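tl;dr need the bound structure. longer version: we got a ligand (phosphoric acid mono(formamide)ester) that a collaborator sent over and nobodys looked at where it sits. i said id run it. heres the input, straight from their email, havent touched it
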Amino acid sequence: MSTPLKDLLRTSDLSKSDIQMLLETAGKFAKKPLQAKKTLAKRTVAIYMTKSSTRTRLASESAVAHLGGTPIFMRADDLQIGRGESIADTAKVISGFCSALIVRTFAQSDVDELGKYASIPVINALTDDDHPTQLLADWLTITERFGKSFKNRKFVYVGDGNNVANAWLIMGATMGAHVVVATPQGKWAPKAAVVNQANEIAKKSGGKIEILTDPKSAAKGASAIYTDVWMSMGDSEADRNEKISALTPFSVTRELMNLTAKDSIFMHCLPAHRGEEVAADVIDGEQSVVWRQAFHRRTTIQSLLYHLTRGELKGNK
Ligand code: CP
Ligand code: NVA
C-alpha cells in the first residue's frame, strides 16, 4: 500500500479522488459543523502567518475549534524564526507540540522546507505561488452550483497571473475541467512551468487548458468568471502604475459578464477592490457567489484537517 499524503504543500499534491473526498466531507461539515468534534480533542494546531489574512485565519481557527482542538496563532515576530532560528528547527519543535501546521508566507520553498522537517501535516495557506485551500472552497462552490459534471462548461479566470491563477489552472486540470486564464501578455501572465504542469495534468484527466490575452473571448460562454486583486501581498509597489494600466482591460464589468453563459457565476477569493478588478454591480449582484466561497473556506479547511490528520489522502505520487 502506498504511503498517504502527509502535507498539502501545493495544489498539485492532490489527486482528483482526494479532492472529491475533501469536498464531500466539507459539504457535510457545512450542514453539521460539529459532527466530528472529537477528531482533534485535547490537541493543538499551529497557524503561522507572515502575511495578512481575514478569511484563512478565521476559517482555520474555526475549523480547528469545530474538530475539538485548540488553534495556536503565531506571526513571525512571535517566534524565534523572526530572529534567525532555522525553518528546520522550528518545524521539529512545532511537531513536538501540535497535530498540524497551517502556514501562510511568501516563498513556496519555505513551506516545502517546513513540510520536509515537520513530522506533522503541513498545510499551505497561501504563498507567492499557490493557494490550495482557497481552490478547495472554490470547487465546492462550483460543484454546489453546477453539479459534478463539467462537460460543456468553461471556467475562466481573468486578471493577474498570480498565486490564485496558478492554483485555478492546476485544480481545474486535476478535476478534468476546461479552464481558461486570461491575463496581459508578458510580466503578469502565468509562468510557463505552471502552464506546462497544468497541461500535463489535463492530458491525463481529460481537462483542457487555455491561456489567453483577450478577456472578451475568454468570457464568451463561460460558466464562471473568477478574478483576484491586481496587487497581491508582497507585490512590488514600484510596479503598481504599470501593472494597473496593463490589467485595466481585464476588469470584470457588467459588459464582460454579459458575454458569459446564461447561468454563469462570478467568483472572487476576496479581499476585493470594487472599481478595480471588479465592478461593484458585479460582485454585489445576483450572479456573485463570493460569500459562499468565503463560507466554504472553513468547511474545506475543516475537511482537510480531518482527512490529513487521519492519513486518508492518497496524493499524486
Ligand atoms: N481569500 C483569502 O485567502 O482571504 P484572506 O487573505 O483574508 O485569508
Ligand atoms: N493574490 C492575493 C490573494 C489574497 C487572498 C494575494 O496573494 O495577496
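gonna send this back to them w/ a short note. The first helix runs from residue 16 to 31.
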